[in-house]
Amino acid sequence: MLKLTIFVFMQKIIRLLSGILFLGIALFIFFLVVTGRGETTPPQSVENYEVKGADISAHNGDVDFERLKNDGIEFAYIKCTEGAGFKDSNFHENFRKAQASGIKAGAYHFFRFDSPGYMQALNMMHSIRGKDLDLPLAIDVEEWTNPSDRNTSAIVEQIKHMAETLVENGYKVVIYTNKDGFARFYRNGLEAYPLWLCSFTDIDKDVKWSFWQYSHRGLVKGLDRLVDLNVFNGSRDDWAEFTGSRQQ
User: For this structure, is 55 an active site residue?
Assistant: First the structure.
C-alpha cells in the first residue's frame, strides 16, 4: 500500500512539473513574438530604401542621437502620449536632442481603445504644443495591451475622431499598425491617411505605404538596447516633399 501511495504521489509530481515546463515554454515563445525577438533576419529589400529611421520611447533609456545620426538614422518617431492622459517622460528631451543632432523628429501616440478619440487628440496636442515638428503626427493602432472586447467599427470611429481633430488643428497624420491592425482597422475606414506598417517580411506590392517598420531588434550606435527600425518609401526628393507636419 505504501509503495502504491508513493507511486501515485510521484505521478502527480511528474504531471505538475510537466505542466510547469509546458507553461514556461509557451510564455517564452509568447515573449519572443511580442518583443520582436522572434523575428527573422530583416528582408533584403529594405536596402532598396535610402532614408532610414528609428522609433524611440522612454523604454529605450538614454539615447545618443548624434551617434544615431552618424550610424545612418535620418528620422526618429518619438513616443509622445498614450490614451487620454499618459505622457512619455522622455518625450521632450528626446525630441530636443533629435532635432539638435539634425535628425528629423516626429511624435507618435499610442491609441487606447477605451478612451474617446477627441480626448486622446487633446492629450497629444497638449504635449507637442510649441514644437516645430518635422514629420506628420503618427497614431499607433494595435491590439497589444488594448481591451479585446471592443467593437471594430466603434474603434475605427474613435481613431477617425482623433485623426480628424488633429487635421482640423493643422496637423498631418499617419497611421501606424501591424498586419493584424491593417486588416482589422486600416482597411475599414482609415485609408485616407498615409500608412506606417510593421512587417517583418516584404510588404505586398498592392499595399500603399509611407513608412515600413521592418525590425523590432535593431542594433545601432547610440543605443544600448534593441530598437525599432524603419524606412521611408520614396526617393530623397519624395522625402523632402513629405517632411513637415503643418499643412501649407
Answer: yes
Amino acid letter at 200?
F
82 is an active site residue: no
Is-contact 213 55, C-beta < 8 A?
Answer: yes
For 49-242, the fitting CATH number among 2.40.50.320, 3.20.20.80, 1.10.10.10, 3.40.50.620 is 3.20.20.80
Q: What is the pLDDT of residues 206-242, one digit of tens each?
A: 999 999 999 998 888 877 888 999 999 999 999 998 8
- As a whole number of angstroms, the distance between CA 157 and CA 162 comes to 9
Q: Model-level pTM greater than 0.85?
A: no
Domains of the chain, by residue range, sit at 1-35, 49-242
Amino acid at 6: I
Catalytic position from the list 50, 66, 142, 238: 142
Structural contact between residues 70 and 101, judged by C-beta atoms closer than 8 angstroms:
no
pLDDT tens digit string along 52-89?
Answer: 999 999 999 999 999 999 999 999 999 999 999 999 99
